[in-house]
Amino acid sequence: MSARADALHDHWEVVIGLETHTQLSTASKIFSGASTAFGAPPNAQASAVDIALPGVLPVLNRGAVVRAIRFGVAVGGTIHPRSVFARKNYFYPDLPKGYQISQYEIPVVQGGSITFAFGDAQRTVQLTRAHLEEDAGKSLHEDFSGMTGIDLNRAGTPLLEIVTEPDMRSAAEAVAYAKTLHTLVRWIDICDGNMQEGSFRCDANVSVRPRGQAALGTRCEIKNLNSFRFLEKAIEFEVRRQVELIEDGGRVVQETRLYDSDNDETRPMRSKEDAQDYRYFPDPDLPPLAIDDAWIAEVRAAMPELPQAMQARIVAHYALGVQDAAALTSSRDSARYFEAAMAALPVADATGAKLVANWMHGELAAALHRAGADIADSPVPAHALAQLVARIRDDTLSGKMAKEVFDALYGGDGGVDAIIDARGLRQISDSGAIATIVDGVLAANPAIVAEYRAGKEKAFNALVGKAMAASRGKANPAEVNALLRKKLGGQPA
Amino acid sequence: MPAPMNPVLDTLAGLSASLAAKRVSSVEVTTALLARIERAQPALNAFVTVDREGALAQARAADVLRAQGGAGALTGVPIAHKDVLMTDGLRTTCGSRMLAQFTAPYDAFVVAGLKRAGSVLVGKTNMDEFAMGSSNETSFFGPVRNPWNTAFVPGGSSGGSAAAVAARLVPAATGTDTGGSIRQPAALTGVCGLKPTYGVCSRYGLVAFASSLDTPGPFARTAQDCALMLNAMAGHDPRDATSLARPREDYTRELAQPLAGLRIGLPREYFGAGIDADVAAAIDGALAEYRKLGATTVDIELPASRLSVPVYYVIAPAEASSNLSRFDGVRYGHRAADYDSLLELYAKSRAEGFGAEVKRRILIGTYVLSHGYYDAYYLKAQQVRRLIADDFQRAFARCDVIMGATTPSAAFEFGAKSSDPVQMYLNDIFTIAGNLTGAPAISIPCGFTRGGLPIGLQIQANHFREARLINVAHQYQQVTDWHARAPEGSQ
Fold first, then answer.
1. Are β-strands B78-82 and A289-290 bridged in parallel, bridged antiparallel, or unpaired?
2. Complex confidence, ipTM
């Protein structure tokens, strides 16, 4: 498979563009006052506007616009001073008005880009646009035999549809882009990113062309990919399908396809020939959306430091690697945790930063993962982790002890120093006390000492082990080492 | 002018004075008008729904309020609403089979305003289906007949409200005006009909026909009564994004202002060929009165206005085709009895629920918005709409109001134009520009044809100049009595 894939990529170039529907985290819908909370009984959150009673009118939710502006600022796009809501007309039972209010000719955000680490390189994907629109309801086919249920709770939920240029060249790159976008929209607090609940879903436009060919191949759009794994697998399947089709003398037909995760394949949904004419026109119920510079400035002033900028700062300030910095800024909660821990360290230097990063990605990440918890709800607060790191650095704790303290911290057994004292975990670094232990070990093990003197380096390690055991693990191993060498009179013969 | 002896037949202002002076109670007036409505219904068919119980309950409440001293100008005054405006708990049909059984759970903004002002709602008036028509022949509930001669149409689409006011069934009523649907029936039935500036009266609860043109407004027998109604109908509504946030106005405040120095613009395009001779003579007579009142006339040009009708018949059907998509038989409204697929559910429900004129406009609208035609039709129409608005702005730099006939001819007989939609559409040739520009206009009675049918004078003013418009109409009504004439049998 992998050899075949390599051969495929030698001859064919894959071209991918993504359209991502991000559900904006407003409390109420984009054109009505109904709640957007997930999981209510069917139609409990559908107002007169959402079910499109005669005579009701849409009124734009300012919070949705603020979130669109935040996104535009974050990606460096142009925020149009005057964007227009349009009606996309089609009939479907879960579309109560018979049209979806979207933006067509003039979107709220035009352009911008997303930069991310891909392997060892940095990649930048250009954005075409991001526009505001309302979600449709849901048709429930399973629960009613011979009938279709309609739940309009989701109808009118605010979405920002983010469209890229066809800039990605592999499924892996598309996933890297989507993950970066997913981090960004949560980072700037415009979307909860919950993919199971449909808050972040991707459509992938996929085409292939012979390497070296300038013109794009015919594309297919794969709809509603609601996990990164499905996104990757759907694209990989689609690429193989298109290449095999062309190599067998066929040609790709422009169409919309659905990914079937059970069978790991894409299937045609509708072709361009039966594409609907949506009869877009400006919605006369909604005046053009006016966004002036003052509004943009107000939103910009309330923006957090963005992940890219923070990564660069972490790399420059703490001399951490790009991978470490990217991992620390994988979410705003993770970044907040890191910053809080660094602020609590007595010495916030590169060594401290590396220790904090290692503990966050090691023990803490593992423990949180086991508990299915999020770093925002970590039982070990950032200042406690900082305290733990401080005790490692001042030689109070060995690495092994630190792990025991961490487990106790995670279990809620109190503060770092209290745990150390309660468990007698303080490392012995006092040279007098260690000298007494070392002298005792040397006196009690003349045979091993003799082996060492005869040139057996392994015997030295055995002596270290005896000394550590005699201290019940509390002796500072480096001190024990140094003292043993000194007492044994330097290198073995 | 001698005051009418019977307060039941009086103007809104006159009735209000009688109620205030306790010469009559709201229950008495309401009871009497309900009886008149019942008697007139077989001949005129002005109402779709009459709410006898509700009206009497409101009348009793109004009388209590009057006794307590908390009354306003409209307290206890019976009115009717065009059946396109949502009324909480009282069926709203839009003159269509589609909504023949539909009852909304809320009041339209203008309905709520008139309710708060203490008016008594006697019922819902008949109309062209979904407000599409100029003759009231498209109603699912049968045509409304003109009280002046029941062989003639009352105009449309607010024909039921116009006929009800003309026949003295109510002193005032609401209507909606998308291309002339208040002013044209007002002219054809000899009453006053005011289309306010777009955005002055919220469209919330008005079942949309063409959203960028739909304008609620009042019918009454005098300009002053229109002002009293508008006082209760206007205002900012946060539920309508096109409703304008402007300070409240008293639209009666300029009533007494003399007209000396008033500059009346006479568009070349509104006079001459195509105007019925009796109508032209009546307009000339009205202009002579205005000159006597101290006004001067100035010739103006509105060259782009000749394109009003084609522009309107692109934009209005385009918006309608989309607005009426929600009537799909899924959630409410008419649903076909049998269907084998989703497509058939849609197709049959809509084919059965909508009448011919509504279908015609949905088809036109769907066509002009279609891929490949949008630029040539919809976009071009919007561009011409701007040119028409520019014409009016240039004109209003030279005059205070623009006058002319409301319609090129008086009421026509049933069936006279129903086989030729374009002839029907041309009846709105003078009224449509006001909807395209959004500026206010009023139609007031200014004479009769030799056949005894009323003729309307249209007065247009610039945006937000309703108070001036009402003043200009009111001063004319102080020196003429066309508006006080009643159809035979209605006195």
1. unpaired
2. 0.96
